[in-house]
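Now read the record:
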Amino acid sequence: IALYAYHGRQSLFARRNSGPLYLLALPVMAVTVPLSMSRAGILLLGILVLWMGLRFVYGRVIHRRQMRSSTTKSTSRPTSTSRPTSTTNANALGAMLLVGIAVAGSLTIAARQIALRWQATEHQIEEHVSGERMNVRLLLMRDTIKMAQAKPVLGWGIGTFGQIFPMYQGSELYRKATVGGESVWEPRFYEFAHNDYLQFWAESGALGCILLASVPALLVVSICCHGSQGRRDAVSHWLAVGCVLVLLLALIDFPFGNEAVDVLFVTLFVLSGKFALLARNATAAERTNERTNQSEPTCTLHAPRSVSLHKKAPNFSGAFRQREHVSK
C-alpha cells in the first residue's frame, strides 16, 4: 500500500496516470494469510482493511472541508492540496476494494481450513472459561516471566530459550512419553515463547532491551516531537501501519524469530522514519520561504507627479541678511 501511495504521488508530479503496478502485492498478501491458517494473521489483516476504510472516510471528510473553505474565501482559486488529497483518497479506495475482494476470495478457497481452526478456537475459549485448561500461550508467558525474573538485568543469553526454559516450565506443559517401556511425563520442547518481548527480556535482560530500543525510540521521539509541524505523508503512514501490525503480532506470536521478518521490519521502520523526516523538512523549507517573502520590502511604483513651472522659488533673503550681519 505504501509503494502504491508512493507511485501515485510520483505519477501525480510527473502528470501521468498511476497504474496498479504495486497493487499486485495486495491480493498475494490477502490470499496467503488465510491459506496459512494463521488466526492472528487473519485478525490483523481485518484490522488493516478496517483501518484503510477509516482512513478513506477521514480523507473524504477533510477533502470536503478544504473545498468548502476554499469556496467561501474571496479567492476563487482552490488550494494546491486538493488534487493530491483526492488522488490519495482514490488510491486508498482502490487498494481497499482490491484487498476486500482478495480476502473474500481467499476465505472462500480456504473455507474448510478456516472452519476447523474456528472450531478449535471455540473449544479453547470454552476450556479457558470453564477453567479446565489455560491457553498454551498464557502458560508460556507465565513461565517465561519466571525465567526472565531469574536474571532480569543481563538475561540468560541470546538463543538460550529452548535450553533454559524447561527449568521453569510448569507441569501443564508436560506430555506423556514412553522411555524404556515405561510411561513418563517430560517437558515439551518450545523454541519460542510466543511473545517476542518476554523472550527477548529473558534472553538479553533489561540492559539488552534498552540498547535495542534506544535507537528506534529516539527516531520515534524526534518524529513525534516535530510531527505536528510537518505535513502527513501517506507513504510514511502506511509503512508505520505495517510496523505496528508486526509489533502487535509479536505479542502473541514470534515473528521476530524469522530473519526475513527482521530484515523487512527494519526496512519498513527506517523508510517510514525517512519519509516522515523528508515531509517535515519540506514543510520547514516552505515555511522559511514564506517568511522570507513576507519579510522582503515590497517595491511600489508611483506615477511621477507633474511639476509646476510657475512655482515660486524659495526666499533666501533672510539667510543673506544674517550672513551680512555676521560679517559686519
User: Anything to note?
Assistant: The mean pLDDT is 75. The first strand starts at residue 174 and ends at 179.
